[in-house]
Amino acid sequence: MSSVVDAIRHVAQHKERFTSDDVWPHFVPPPANPNVIGAGFREANRLGIIRPTGQFVMSARHQAHRRRVQVWESAMYARRPRSAAYATS
After folding, report:
1. Is residue 53 part of a domain?
2. Mean pLDDT, 10 residues at a time, over the chain (89 residues)?
């Protein structure tokens, strides 16, 4: 389970919003039981790493057969400051 939460934490540090589709590529080989991913998301939510947005999208993973997946919001993502070159007056 900790490796799943670690993968979720990694994605949460780099993306403001994401789904389980974004976490799956971090597993090679994939988990023997795919339910461990859902359990990892529940644990990451409990730990305050992520929070649900209430939004759902269709999964892009072929194995998921276009089922709806939760969109999560990172509690860790830090927006990168805009550089002065791109600042508007």
Report:
1. yes
2. 90 97 90 91 98 97 89 89 55
